Amino acid sequence: MKVLIVGSGGREHAIAYSVAKSDKVDKIYCAPGNAGIAELAECTPIGAMEFDKIVAFAKEKEIDLVIVGMDDPLVGGLVDELEAAGIRAFGPRKNAAILEGSKAFSKDLMKKYNIPTAGYENFEDPDEALAYLKTAKFPIVLKADGLALGKGVLICGTYEEAEAGVKTIMVDKQFGTSGNTMVVEEFMTGREVSVLSFVDGNTVKTMTSAQDHKRAGDGDTGLNTGGMGTFSPSPFYTKEVEEFCGKYIYQATVDAMKAEGRPFKGIIFFGLMLTEEGPKVLEYNARFGDPEAQVVLPRMKNDIVEVMEACVDGTLDKIDLQFEDNAAVCVVLASDGYPVKYDKGLPVTGLEEFRKHDGYYCFHAGTKFDGEQIVTNGGRVLGVTAKGRDLKEARANAYAATEWVKFDNKYMRHDIGKAIDEA
């Protein structure tokens, strides 16, 4: 088979790593890719939103399967355009990707089908939102309706903070048109858990659990980011939690989308909050998490291409999804100043060390070639992942491996999985 992966981040590198292990695949392409993906795939300088060029490239190269890694092209309808051209694609169509593309849609879906989530209201008028917030209980959560690179969520402790948040999202449009509608949501407390799942329109098969660290600084301080690190599995995701979610959240969501005439094929990422009242949905994503994919996929035993084809063909019920009985931790190496302002073009060294050690991975997120030299090309530069017999060992291995990599202004959190390590 020939496979084309669409995207350029650490998630797409993790997908390419898994695809490269498949006996079914002879050739991998990536659009646009990065310096790390280039070791596994032939990268082509086509942007993820250049749909016409992607379709033409897939036809020219006689691609057997296109894997769309990123949210923007999924929500924009890339899968629809590929299928219309007779090209097999893994990922939800536009009318199903709305599950991530509109938080207002997903909240209304959960309400309609009794899927556990936080109480909420949707607003299109900032004055109406402010009037509602005057009567609200704090802290409270404000969410831009559309895609915002994982940064469109504000937790407000006071009315004054919420007033500023409404201005940021709805008036100043800091997240662009994503802020045309805003969700005001009850603040939930508890442990967060991420569960990625394969879906074929009817059947849902969940992967091993993970947990992300969103804030830029140690101790969950600082600005929200795309994710500063993650670990898998979550010790808080018990058998009882899994059974509850399987019945009232996972299958219920797939069935709800089908009932709405929006059958979902691809990846549903369930962001969960384990509250005192039981598990509730924080958010849905319509693709692999980043950096969750970097700890989940290295632990998967199955041939990923076989699983993805089963999702496309509607035969996922015949797949026995299996994961290694171990743990993995990913520490993101960022450029200092992320997620606001940071330098690019800084030389990266030490990457060859990862080829010498089994169970250690370096997934490229923001890198490119400057001649023969790999340099930084984004806020999140690399995801250093390591396995271990348990989370404590995996964490120690991952942090040891971060020392192999050198670049100016290297920044990372030092507490990824620490609470678990100390538990």
TrEMBL record:
Entry cofactors: Mn(2+); Mg(2+)
Gene3D superfamilies in UniProt: 3.40.50.20, ATP-grasp fold, A domain, ATP-grasp fold, B domain, Phosphoribosylglycinamide synthetase, C-terminal domain
Pathway: Purine metabolism; IMP biosynthesis via de novo pathway; N(1)-(5-phospho-D-ribosyl)glycinamide from 5-phospho-alpha-D-ribose 1-diphosphate: step 2/2
Cited HAMAP family: GARS
Keywords: ATP-binding, Ligase, Manganese, Metal-binding, Nucleotide-binding, Purine biosynthesis
Protein name: Phosphoribosylamine--glycine ligase
Domain ATP-grasp span(s) in chain numbering: 107-313
One Pfam family cited in the UniProt record for this chain: GARS_A
Stated family: Belongs to the GARS family.
Reaction equations catalysed: 5-phospho-beta-D-ribosylamine + glycine + ATP = N(1)-(5-phospho-beta-D-ribosyl)glycinamide + ADP + phosphate + H(+)
Any one GO BP annotation for this protein: purine nucleobase biosynthetic process
EC number assigned by the record: 6.3.4.13
EC class (word): ligase
